[in-house]
TrEMBL record:
<dbReference type="InterPro" id="IPR000297">
    <property type="entry name" value="PPIase_PpiC"/>
</dbReference>
<dbReference type="InterPro" id="IPR046357">
    <property type="entry name" value="PPIase_dom_sf"/>
</dbReference>
<protein>
    <recommendedName>
        <fullName>peptidylprolyl isomerase</fullName>
        <ecNumber>5.2.1.8</ecNumber>
    </recommendedName>
</protein>
<dbReference type="GO" id="GO:0003755">
    <property type="term" value="F:peptidyl-prolyl cis-trans isomerase activity"/>
</dbReference>
<dbReference type="InterPro" id="IPR027304">
    <property type="entry name" value="Trigger_fact/SurA_dom_sf"/>
</dbReference>
<feature type="domain" description="PpiC">
    <location>
        <begin position="110"/>
        <end position="211"/>
    </location>
</feature>
<comment type="similarity">
    <text>Belongs to the PpiC/parvulin rotamase family.</text>
</comment>
<dbReference type="InterPro" id="IPR050245">
    <property type="entry name" value="PrsA_foldase"/>
</dbReference>
<dbReference type="Pfam" id="PF00639">
    <property type="entry name" value="Rotamase"/>
</dbReference>
<keyword id="KW-0697">Rotamase</keyword>
<keyword id="KW-0413">Isomerase</keyword>
């Protein structure tokens, strides 16, 4: 991520942001920016600026209530402030059930496949090895079509994966549990020995899908705690957002608005 060079900033930089009577300069934002990695410098600067504004709004509100933080207990003071002032509605059972019924796909046992494989290693840029091991994979497949009981033996002889010690068995895999290019293929293959070698960044794979379990919905009773936790977290985010916007309006902020989207950047005053 591109960083702001503090040496290039003026000795007395002009203020960029004002929170009440507190001013923040470009140098303040530059010092905060490394703590907010992002895809671009502008986005990181905006995240840093927002963080400075939020902390200052909370600090000023805490001070007005006699909860002024010190360097030793600032987090404790701000936590006490939010516990005292943030009103978060507790989701009741009916709200949890409504959310569950509207989002059943989020609360399902994922589909899984029971897999064995033989990895014939070849780096992506090693054309000679990839060609040689592709042809080896085809020969192994031809042999396994005739003698499927030899899969474990061939895995132990040829596979570069540690699973060779278990006859190539990877066990039950849900989506996302193996390398991306292989993962995408495994969950679309029919049961049995797949007829062609599968490519990944590690080489070629001879694959057998031994069993498949499709995704199954879970009952509400089994996921009620998860649903409640999700709704409570969402309510907390919304309550905190409204609280900060109210503080912004009450205390006054110039140079940035908390409702701004990241791509809007930090406005100059």
């Amino acid at each position: 991520m591109e960083m702001i060079s503090l040496e290039t900033l003026p000795d007395t930089p002009a203020p960029v942001i004002r929170v009440g009577d507190t001013l923040f300069s470009e140098a303040d934002i530059a010092r905060e920016t490394p703590f907010h990695p992002a895809g671009s410098l502008a986005e990181a600067q905006l995240k840093a600026a927002r963080a400075l504004v939020v902390r200052e709004l909370l600090a000023q509100r805490a001070a007005s209530l006699g909860l002024a933080p010190t360097s030793e207990d600032d987090d404790q003071a701000l936590a006490s402030l939010l516990e005292r002032e943030l009103k978060v509605p507790e989701p009741d059972d009916s709200a949890c059930r409504r959310y569950f019924e509207a989002h059943r796909e989020r609360f399902s046992e994922p589909s899984r496949v029971k897999v064995r494989h033989i990895l014939l290693p070849a780096a992506p840029d090693d054309a000679q090895a990839r060609d040689a091991h592709y042809h080896l994979a085809e020969r192994l497949l031809e042999e396994l079509r005739q003698h499927p009981e030899r899969f474990s033996e061939m895995a132990q002889r040829h596979s570069a994966c540690p699973s060779r010690d278990q006859g190539g068995e990877l066990g039950w895999l849900a989506s996302g549990q193996t390398v991306t290019e292989l993962d995408l293929a495994l969950h679309r293959l029919p049961p049995g020995l797949y007829e062609r070698p599968l490519a990944s960044r590690y080489g070629w794979h001879v694959v057998s899908i031994d069993e498949r379990l499709e995704s199954t919905p879970l009952p509400f009773a089994q996921v009620a705690q998860r649903v409640h936790h999700y709704l409570r977290e969402e309510a907390t985010r919304q309550a905190l957002r409204q609280y900060l916007l109210a503080l912004e309006a009450e205390i006054g902020v110039e140079g940035i608005h908390l409702e701004d989207e990241p791509e809007h950047g930090v406005s100059r005053t």
